[in-house]
Specification:
Elements: H1 3-13, E1 25-29, E2 32-35, E3 40-43, H2 46-49, H3 58-68, H4 81-92, E4 98-102, H5 105-122, E5 130-134, H6 143-147, H7 152-155, E6 165-168, H8 173-179, E7 184-189, E8 192-193, E9 199-200, H9 203-216, E10 219-223, E11 247-250, E12 261-265, H10 267-270, H11 286-299, H12 302-322, E13 328-334, E14 337-342, H13 347-355, E15 358-359, E16 361-362, E17 367-370, H14 378-392
Parallel strand pairs: 3-15, 5-6, 5-7, 7-10, 10-11
Antiparallel strand pairs: 1-2, 2-3, 4-12, 8-9, 11-12, 13-14, 14-17, 16-17
Helix pairs in contact: 3-11, 4-11, 12-14, 13-14
């Protein structure tokens, strides 16, 4: 089937929840993807921060293929080894004591909200239900996660949303102090905002959130769906703050493109969770977890994490030196989650760069987002920035 027919049939058969360019991708290799016409694209989006170890990584392919040839699915009615192996890796490398598996970042945040509510319920405080979130946040599009994602265009058609939520101002300590009190069930925050424009939290803000949650016995949730699993140059983005959450949500990069989400919890939350509190038929599937084990082992390697930090510095310097300064407001981020706030709209630059074989994605109206595979090298980054500079000229 040729690209034209595929695009026509998509319009005929698939619900129009996305706007896509008229390109059909057929395969990928490392930091490159190829369309059905054979054109090569340097992938600076990695499927929106997902393909962390590159397209078609041979070790990942081998693990997924081998597991698919043995056992694909038995549901959560039974034990399988890959899920347990992945859970052990996650717990032993983090603050967490237990892991809940699901299939996406939105699901991981839904689980986080439910577990926080259950914690308060089990401690005799069922009225302690308020969820505090912050401006610029993106936590997902399912109904609970959407209620803490302050985008009017996402929320308006689906109201009423989950009640008892309050929005504070991101990186504003006084705003957090005014909202977090004895009615607060949980506080959810991204250590580095993704969709909100690649905005890192300040040390003072994250530290104060932990203090306020401790003071009011509220649950602190870190959403690391986009910024976690090595993306920032440390395994967890919150490592940079020396502050630990009670719950952390992960998803995007963990299985290199297969659907996975995880909600990590500490012991005080874990001991409140009982059979029947939450479930998912497909969660923790053997094939997905087999792939995720390969990803985790590769990313949780000091050599790769050092590479991410180095390439982050290289990317920052390239953006600062090559892009027209009069069009750049600010360069933000850490490691290989970087954003450039512009004085103009990002979408036309994304389109022009794509024509020249570089895939980009925006973060809001006027921010270019850079979340390439973590394996990208300096020459590839330099080429990407040259194309973007030309597209902005």
């Amino acid at each position: 089937m040729d690209a034209h027919t595929i695009i026509e049939n998509e319009a005929k058969y698939i619900a129009p929840t996305y706007t896509r360019p008229e390109i059909v991708f057929s395969h990928g290799d490392g930091v490159y993807v190829y369309d059905t016409e054979g054109k090569q694209y340097l992938d600076m989006t990695a499927g929106i921060a997902v393909v962390s170890i590159g397209h078609s990584d041979p070790d990942w392919v081998a693990a997924v293929t081998a597991q698919a040839g043995k056992l694909t699915h038995v549901s959560n009615l039974y034990h399988t080894a890959p899920a347990v192996e992945l859970a052990q890796r996650l717990v032993e490398s983090s603050f967490a004591d237990k892991v809940y598996f699901c299939n996406s970042g939105a699901e991981a945040n839904e689980g986080a909200i439910k577990f926080a509510r259950k914690y308060q319920y089990m401690h005799g405080r069922p009225e302690k239900r308020e969820i505090v979130y912050f401006s610029g946040a993106f936590h997902g599009r399912t109904m609970g996660a959407l209620a803490v994602t302050p985008r009017e265009k996402y929320q308006k058609p689906f109201k009423p949303l989950m009640p008892q939520t309050k929005m504070g101002v991101y990186n504003d300590v006084s705003s957090a102090e005014a909202l977090i009190d004895g009615t607060t069930c949980a506080v959810i925050v991204e250590p580095i905002q993704g969709e909100g424009g690649i905005v890192p939290a300040t040390q003072a803000f994250i530290t104060r959130l932990r203090q306020l949650c401790d003071q009011h016995d509220a649950v602190l949730i870190f959403d690391e769906v986009q910024c976690g699993v090595g993306r920032s140059g440390t395994l967890w983005a919150h490592e940079a703050y020396s502050v630990q959450p009670d719950i952390m949500s992960l998803a995007k990069p963990l299985a290199n493109g297969l659907p996975i989400g995880t909600t990590l919890v500490n012991e005080k939350i874990a001991k409140c969770i009982q059979p029947g509190d939450h479930a998912s038929t497909f969660a923790g599937g053997a094939v997905v977890c087999a792939g995720a084990n390969v990803v985790f082992d590769k990313v949780n390697d000091p050599v790769l994490l050092a590479h991410v930090r180095q390439m982050g510095e290289v990317l920052h310097d390239l953006l600062a030196s090559k892009l027209p300064s009069e069009k750049v407001v600010e360069i933000r981020g850490r490691g290989l989650i970087m954003g450039v706030e512009l004085t103009e709209a990002a979408a036309p630059i994304v389109a022009k760069a794509r024509e020249q074989g570089v895939l980009l994605v925006g973060a809001g109206l006027n921010v270019l987002r850079f979340v390439p595979p973590l394996t990208i090298d300096e020459a590839q980054l330099s080429h990407a920035v040259d194309v973007i500079a030309a597209s902005m000229a």
